[in-house]
Amino acid sequence: MNPLDNGFQDAFSQGLFLALFVLQGVTWGFYLAYALTKKDWQYAWARRMLWACVAWNVGALIYRWAVAGHAPWANQYESATMVAFGVLALFSYFEREAKLPILGLLVLPAAMVAIAAANLLPEEYKHISPLMPALQSYWLKIHVSCMLTSYGAFASTFALSLLYLIKTGNWTRKTTWIALAIASPLAGWFFGYVHQSARSDFWNWLMAATGGTELAYGDTAKAYAICAAGALAIGMLLAFALQFLPQRLMDSVPDAGTLDELNYRSVAIGFPLLTLGIILGAVWGHLAWGRYWGWDPKETWAFISWLIFAFFLHMRVFGGWEGRKIAWVGLIGAGSIVFTYWGVNFLLSGLHAYAKP
Fold first, then answer.
1. What is the distance between the alpha carbons of residues 55 and 141, in angstroms, rounded to a whole number?
2. Are 65 and 72 in contact (CB under 8 A)?
3. Is the dihedral of CA 312, 313, 316, 322 positive or negative?
């Protein structure tokens, strides 16, 4: 039997990643409990659960690889599960080296968001399917794995940059309200766009509920407005809940100098991986399409992200920038990575449009 025709194996693979999401949530709960109570047994269990998450993620990837017959990062769903692995693996490294449990409260949600976003994709985006001809190459294993692992490192950059700004008072509660008020409706609109482009069951239901005519590509404004409004409501609830975080959480954050140094180290890990991934992609492009570089949207935005982090390292090492300025550059770079990974795949057409199998 062709494993690609086995619906059970497909569903079981997706179930493994849903279970990973639950494990990540439990792990985050242990880190939160330790940050609040400082009980050693909670920290010990948090670290055990973190390594359990890494092992489970690896096992789920291996299973999907065995069932699909190819590296499990050939579409948006599969690559998101690899991003989650990169986040968990790089955080495990920082956890071992820096003993910084508070970082888990921001980094683990990044891995959880990767898995949750993958599972919120339309069903047809999540099925195991044969590789398209352009991806039937051993370069898929090395180029894409480097790129996705670098994204995991930059998740730590995001968390450390944000922690630094909060610690030094450069990111206030008002900033949180503004950021979520902008980002959440954009995320809701994007969610609607992805489902609209796939004509998913959810989108068809939403169109019917708002009086749209999907077959005639009717008015989608109401449907998009509902997606954006729903995400905005979630964002505002999150901003409201964050107001009640106890001060002792911030008391467990290390000093600004330590955060700045760790932030630099996170980019020092992610940047070489991103550089290697871009170089390998150029070589693969030459073999597949006869050119090393073509300013495809994915190539362009990967290069923009590379420039931002190159600027980060240059100014940190040679320009004397530390602290606040570098933290803001780290956040901008993380935002560029998010758009490179999610935005380009769905919003901009090009040779790298592999979001859908």
1. 20
2. yes
3. positive
Q: Could you read off the pLDDT of 115-131 as tens digits, one per residue? A: 998 888 888 788 887 77
Token representation of residue 356 = 């859908």
Question: Residue 210 has which token pair?
Answer: 């708002």
Which residue type sits at 242?
L
- In this structure, the number of other CB atoms found within 10 A of the CB of residue 230 comes to 15
CB 283 within 8 A of CB 272: no
How far, in Å, CA of 77 to CA of 16, rounded? 13
How confident is the model over 228-254, as pLDDT tens digits?
999 999 999 988 888 777 777 777 788
- CA–CA gap between residue 134 and residue 353 (Å, rounded): 11
Dump pLDDT digits (tens) for 53-63.
999 999 999 99
Determine the Cα–Cα distance for residues 113 and 93; give it in Å rounded to an integer. 20
Between CA 200 and CA 208 the distance in angstroms is 12
Alpha-carbon gap, residue 338 to 182, rounded angstroms: 15
Yes or no: say if 44 and 65 are a contact pair by the CB < 8 Å rule: no
d(CA 299, CA 231): 30
